[in-house]
Amino acid sequence: MEEIRVTERTDVLVVGAGVIGLTTAVYLAEQGLAVRIRADEYPRETTSAVAAAVLGGPALADPAEAANWHPYETTKKWHQIGLEEFATLATRPGTGVRVTPGRWASRQDIADTSWTHLLPGYRDCTAEERAGFPVAFWMSLPIIDMPVYFDHLMGRLTAAGGQIEIGHVASLDEAAAEAPIVVNCTGAYAQRLTADPEIRPMRGQHVVVENPGLESYFFEFSRGPKPTSFIAHGDRLICGGTADRDNWSREPDPVQTEEIISRCAAVEPRIADARILSVEVGLRAARPQIRLEEESLGGARVIHNYGHSGVGVGMSWGCAREVEQIVQRTVHN
C-alpha cells in the first residue's frame, strides 16, 4: 500500500491505526474534519488485524458482576452503538461483516442465567453442543473478517479526505505540536506515551487453519488465560487463543500453537487435521477501564482513547462518537 501524501491542514491528528484509531479517524473525517493518522504500522499490520472480532463485551456481562464494572452504563451504550453499526454494515457487501449464530460457552457455572435469555438469537445448547462446558448457548451477533473490514474503512477514510502516514510518534508533545487536537489511540503502546500505570500489554496468539467446512463459530467467555475459540471466515478458520499479561513478544510460540489446536479440536474434531496456514500474535491493551478523556498539552487538546482490552472492535464506533462529541466541544469553545 502506498503512503498517502499529507496535506498542510490538519484539524485532528490520530495516533495509531488499529481498529480504534482507524474508526475514530473515519468518523471524524466523515463529519467534515481534516484528519490525519500517524502510526508505526498500517491497519493490516496491527494487533486489530488478527482479532477474532466477535461482538460480545458488555452484552455478556452478568448484571451481578457488571454492577461493580464502573462505568458499566457508559460501556454498555458504546457497545450498543457498535452492535447497531455492525448490523447495518452486515447488510452491505464488501465490508467483511456478517451476522451469524455461534456457540458461547463458559467453564465457570453461572448461578442465575435468566439474563442470558435476553441476548439476540438466544437458545440453549444441547448436551452434545455443550462440548463439556457447564454453560453454553447459541447467540447471533456480528462477526468481522478484519482484513476485509480494514480495506472497507480505508476506502471510507480516503473518500472522506482523511490521510494516513507511517511514522513514529516519540511523545505526545511531539504530536501536539502538529495539530490542535490529538487523539491517542495507541493501545498497549500508550504505556510508552503516557504516565498511566494501569495500561498493560496482553499477548494473544491465534492459529489460522484451512476451514474444514464450518460455518458457525465457537467462543469461550470463561475468565482465564486460555480461552478457546474458532471463527470461520470463508476458507479460513481462526483458532484461539491466549491472554498473557505483561508479555510484549509478538513471536509465535509453537507450544501454544499445539495447545490451541488441541483445545479447539476437543470441541470440534475436524480441526485436528486442518492444515495450518499461519500463526498470528497481537498485543491487546489491557486496562481495568477504557480511558476516554481529554487533557491540555501545550496549546493543544489530547483525547485519550485506549485500554479496550479484548473488546476494541465492539467498542470502536461508540468510542469514536464519544471522541467526536469532545472534539466538537473543543472546537466551539
The CATH superfamily name of the domain at 8-53 and 145-199 and 287-333 is NAD(P)-binding Rossmann-like Domain
Helix content: 25-40%
Radius of gyration: 20 Å
Please give the CATH class of the domain at 8-53 and 145-199 and 287-333. Answer: Alpha Beta
Number of helices, counting only DSSP H or I runs of 4 residues or more: 7
CATH architecture label name of the domain at 8-53 and 145-199 and 287-333: 3-Layer(aba) Sandwich
Label the overall shape: globular
- Give average pLDDT, whole number: 90
Query: Biggest β-sheet: count, sense, barrel?
Result: 9 strands, mixed
Number of strands: 15
CATH topology descriptor of the domain at 8-53 and 145-199 and 287-333: Rossmann fold
* Low-confidence region ranges: 1-7, 62-70
Give the helices and strands as they follow along the chain.
EHEHHEEEHEHEEEEEEHEEEH
Q: In percent, how much strand structure appears in the residues?
A: 25-35%
**Secondary-structure class:** alpha/beta
